[in-house]
Amino acid sequence: QVLSLPIVVIVHGNQDNNAKATVLWDNAFSEIDRVPFVVAERVPWEKMCDTLNLKFMAEVQTTKGLLKDHYFFLAQKIFNDHSARPEDFQSRSVSWAQFNKEILPGRGFTFWQWFDGVLDLTKRCLKSYWSDRLIIGFISKQYVCKLLSTEPDGTFLLRFSDSEIGGVTIAHVIRGKDGSSQVENIQPFSAKDLSIRSLGDRIRDLGQLRNLYPNIPKDQAFGSHYNKEQTGKD
Questions:
Q1: Would the CA dihedral through 143, 146, 149, 152 be positive or negative?
Q2: Pfam families attached here (predicted)?
Q3: Which residue has the higher pLDDT, 35 or 96?
Q4: Contact 26/8 with Cβ under 8 angstroms?
Q5: Euclidean distance between CA atoms 214 and 169, whole angstroms
Q6: What's the number of domains the chain is made of?
Q7: DSSP code of 226?
Q8: Which run of H or of E encompasses 155?
């Protein structure tokens, strides 16, 4: 006899997401010499960060992993705590329920369902943009407003949608004649949207977008991702 890697049997495609969560948790956090099926209910947040990073890099096939700011955003999301500082999360532990049982506040999905959607979108449509560090991705809408509110008109950045699974949105500054600023978030693009027209071409189409945050002209940042348009095509 031999102990295999974890296996989950499913009978329908809609169980795939939960199955992946079970396999990931078991692979990452079970002890090698454990009793079969016994795995910790809670794990240190730092261990979870390592696991999410390894999973992201392996799934997307990129050498550019998650950064400290990304972990801070993910911690705020999974613990539903927006008042803590980054160091406050280091001593916390996260439960299986927080990872893949409890619905995120105001949403219809769990933390893992959301993260897995980001993985799938990035792997299918955004790998080169992520690898070129053109997508901040893991950042809250509130923090985006703070970053962009003092920037010139047309400054923008890319973040993963909070409200939809597997969506990427563009946040950009509109500055009025009186100097007041407003940050707008464009309706998120799904993998289906980006298969019809790529993210680079959509950014080129939108005249109100000028500089990628902090101050890189959009053609310089995304020029290598533009498709050469055929003349005469609308």
A1: negative
A2: SH2, STAT_linker
A3: 96
A4: no
A5: 17
A6: 1
A7: P
A8: strand 155-160
CA distance 78 to 102: 9
The tokens of 135 are what?
Answer: 């997508």
Residue 231: per-residue pLDDT:
44
What's the pTM? 0.87
Whether residue 45 lies inside any domain: the answer is yes
Domain with residue 47: its CATH number is 1.10.238.10
Give CA–CA dist 129/174, Å, rounded.
Answer: 24
Model confidence pLDDT, tens digit, residues 21-34: 999 998 888 887 77
Domain presence at residue 2: no
| Cα dist from 219 to 20, 47, 127, 200, whole Å | 38, 39, 19, 9
Q: Which residue has the tokens 């680079």?
A: 200
Residue indicated by tokens 């002209």: 217
Provide mean pLDDT across the span 83-106: 88
Task: Identify any residues that bridge with 178 across adjacent strands, giving them in sequence order.
Answer: none
Torsion angle, CA of 127/132/134/135, rounded to 10 degrees? 40
Cβ atoms of residues 170 and 203 within 8 Å: yes
Our CA angle for 60, 168, 174, nearest 5°, is 140
Averaged pLDDT, 12-39: 86
| pLDDT for res 233 | 54
Amino acid at 144: V
pLDDT band for 55, please (50, 70, 90 cuts).
Answer: very high
Work out the mean pLDDT of the chain and round it to a whole number: 87
